[in-house]
Specification:
With 430 residues, this protein is α+β, with helices and mostly antiparallel strands. 16% of the residues lie in helices and 41% in strands. The protein has five helices and 24 strands. Strands 9, 10, 11, 12, 14 and 24 form a six-stranded antiparallel β-sheet that branches. Helix 2 packs parallel to helix 3 and helix 4 runs antiparallel to helix 5. The protein is globular, with a radius of gyration of 25 Å.
């Protein structure tokens, strides 16, 4: 299960459901419910009604809820946090649920790809032109009703003789290219598990000729996920991994590493997982089943924190979702202004201990009184904790001052853990 504290949005909710107010009226409704006639009402019954009404507005109201600050009345802080958590839980439940696709009839490849993207929120990019491949748009016949994203995509790609390219440059997107004459089809060769698709890619057997007991087997599996989520590391506890041969006998797992940690580097939507096994007797022909569990540590929805009059900011604290951002100070250092931030998460889910590079890619910039944007000229880490980091951002304002300037900082609101159970079947041994 996903931690209750760390539950936050993984992606924006799609279409507004019927009956939910349009954007402008929704903003007005939220303001009214958090104002003096709502959460600020003198009557407790009215405050209770306002809290229930905010929840009833649905996840679309999240973007319009005010940021909780220490200056707010204590009861308002409690109620707003409670409302936000309920709505964020609802978003995560939707966002981490596998997408479903329905496509029937004959249609061009381009339309099928566009429909899959529309129905799932997963961005798909055609890379054939980049590889000087023919960009044909053949018509394909489909009869897909409520199938998973991966089954739908594999069906369409097989029909058009295409495959996925896992090393695309577009973050939160999945690229595809021509399959090639020697490549196998995608359907029937992978395991679908929730947001994930796992396919055996290579198997290597090693025998130490000097030590007859040192025989090893390594199975490499391609793990890809729906690109609408952003994992930063996959964790595979080897204690939860088991394998059997075609006779149902156990194949030993080398569990000496304890837990495999596979960082997700760059902007791709896939990684390779190497499973260490002991080589079975030569009479064994295949791995009939490899079962296990993995945990995907993923980034939540990006939230925006704005600090006005940044030159006067001293220990100014803003909280949204599961993250607190504090501007400690703004100091002039020669021609450069140093703005020191601390960012603390309710639960960082191991994302700040070993795999923290993502947080240094967060957007941080200044807007002056004329809304001109000034990018930071660099940063320096000042604190590294389990759930907290400190960063000093450098701004060169070309002789100007940050008076009346606003600091804008964007970060995922928290980190979530997505459990995935998988089973890979029928891998022939070398």
């Amino acid at each position: 299960m996903i931690s209750a504290v760390a539950l936050v949005c993984v992606m924006a909710v799609g279409q507004v459901s019927e009956g939910v107010p349009a954007a402008d009226s929704l903003v007005a409704k939220v303001r009214s419910l958090v104002g003096k006639q709502g959460l600020g009402n003198e009557e407790m019954a009215k405050r209770d009604e306002a809290e229930k009404a905010l929840v009833a507005l649905g996840p679309e109201a999240l973007a319009h809820l005010p940021t909780v600050t220490p200056r707010m009345p204590a009861e308002d802080q409690v109620r707003l946090k409670r409302v936000r958590k309920v709505l964020e839980d609802a978003v995560v439940a939707t966002a981490t649920k596998p997408s479903a696709v329905t496509l029937t009839g004959e249609m061009p490849l381009s339309k099928a790809i566009a429909e899959i993207s529309k129905q799932t929120g997963n961005k798909l990019v055609d890379y054939r032109e980049r590889f000087n491949q023919e960009g044909a748009d053949p018509k394909i016949k489909l009869d897909l009703k409520g199938v998973s994203f991966w089954q739908a995509l594999d069906t369409v790609l097989d029909a058009a003789e295409l495959t996925v390219y896992n090393y695309d440059e577009d973050r939160n997107a999945l690229a595809f290219t021509s399959r090639g004459d020697a490549a196998r089809t995608r359907l029937g060769n992978a395991s679908y598990s929730g947001l994930f698709r796992l396919e055996p890619a290579r198997i290597e057997a090693t025998r130490d000729l000097k030590a007859s007991s040192m025989h090893a087997l390594r199975l490499t599996v391609d793990a890809v996920w729906e690109p609408r989520v952003t994992p930063i590391v996959l964790e595979v506890p080897l204690a939860d991994v088991s394998a059997k041969d075609e006779q149902g006998k156990a194949i030993d797992i080398d569990r000496s590493e304890g837990t495999l940690e596979i960082p997700v580097e760059g902007s791709g939507s896939g990684v390779e997982i190497d499973f260490p096994l002991s080589a079975p007797a030569r009479s064994v022909k295949s791995i009939a089943s490899l079962k296990g569990k993995l945990m995907a540590v993923a980034l939540g929805k990006v939230e925006t924190f704005e600090f006005a009059d940044i030159d006067k900011a001293r220990d100014v604290r803003l909280e949204r979702g599961g993250v607190i951002v504090v501007v400690e100070s703004c100091r002039k250092n020669g021609d450069v202004y140093d703005i020191n931030l601390r960012v603390r998460f309710d639960q960082a889910a191991n994302a700040l201990e070993s795999h923290r590079a993502w947080i240094y890619d967060n957007e941080c910039f200044l807007l002056d009184g004329k809304e001109r944007r000034f990018e930071n000229a660099g940063l320096e880490a000042t604190l590294l904790g389990v759930n907290e980091v400190g960063v000093s951002y450098k701004f060169n304002l070309e002789g100007g001052t940050p008076a009346k300037a606003k600091l804008v900082y964007k970060t995922p609101a928290a980190i979530i853990r997505i459990p995935v159970e998988f089973e890979i079947k029928g891998v022939d041994l070398p």
